[in-house]
Amino acid sequence: MTTSLKRMPGWAKILSAVVLVLVILGAGLQLSLLPGLRDVFREETHDRTGPTLLKSIQDMSRYDAASGNFQVVVDLEKDTKYLPDAVRGTRTLYVGAGTVDAYVDLGKIRDKDVKVNKDRTSATLNLPHAALGKPALDPDQSYAVSKQRGLLDRLGDVFSDNPNDERAVQRLAARHIGDAAKKTELTARAEENTTGMLKGLLGSLGFKEVKVTYGS
User: Fold this and answer.
1) What SS3 class is residue 99?
2) By the 8 A CB rule, do 190 and 74 touch?
3) 0.70 surpassed by pTM
4) Pairing of strands 209-214, 122-127
């Protein structure tokens, strides 16, 4: 036995030692021969995030009057012309969920857009048309369903700082959601809600007649 061990090459001795250690650790976990071992390998999470810095403050003059919820399934495929997908190429199925707000920018109202009679009982307001805000993806409701990558792409992920980068499909999902919002009646609903809000506000101030129009 001793003679056979001496004849073993160095790499074989190292491999045997590693296998032996793994067997001992496995036995310890299964038979509880090593108390407290689970605590040694238990994963802990530490939040060492620095303080949040306020970069700027912007005055908001727009009235968010309506919001639409959207969902889209993005199927994004990238391939190389002369290489099969198994070698070079990616395909990602991504469910994007997000919202688009419709608002009226009250900061664009000019003096001539507001007319009030002498008795302050009647008012006419001309407001800019409602507009759509930027799509906002919900990270809790958006997720990748599947990812397929070619051999070269998988190798590239090993050396990538962010192998699970999903910015491309997220931007595409946001674009599709924004396009879908344009085909809805969000802006019309926003103008309707803004009119109701202003009539209620001015009515509480004593105005009996309030007329709201949009556009020049």
Assistant:
1) strand
2) no
3) no
4) parallel
Angle (nearest 5°) at CA 193 between 189 and 197: 170
Where helices occur in 133-166 by DSSP H, the ranges are 151-158
Q: What is the mean pLDDT of residues 104-119?
A: 91
How many Cβ atoms are within 10 Å of 131's Cβ, its own excluded? Answer: 14
The predicted-structure confidence for 136-183, as pLDDT tens digits, reads as follows 999 999 998 877 664 544 444 543 444 456 888 899 999 999 999 999
Nearest one of 125, 138, 129, 106 to 189, comparing CA atoms = 129
**CB of 140 within 8 A of CB of 126?**
no
Please name the helix (run of DSSP H) or strand (run of DSSP E) that holds residue 68, with its range, or none. Answer: strand 62-79
* Structure tokens that stand for 180 in this block: 């879908």
Separation between Cα atoms, residue 131 and residue 153, nearest integer Å: 41
With H, G, I as helix, E, B as strand and everything else as coil, classify residue 184. coil
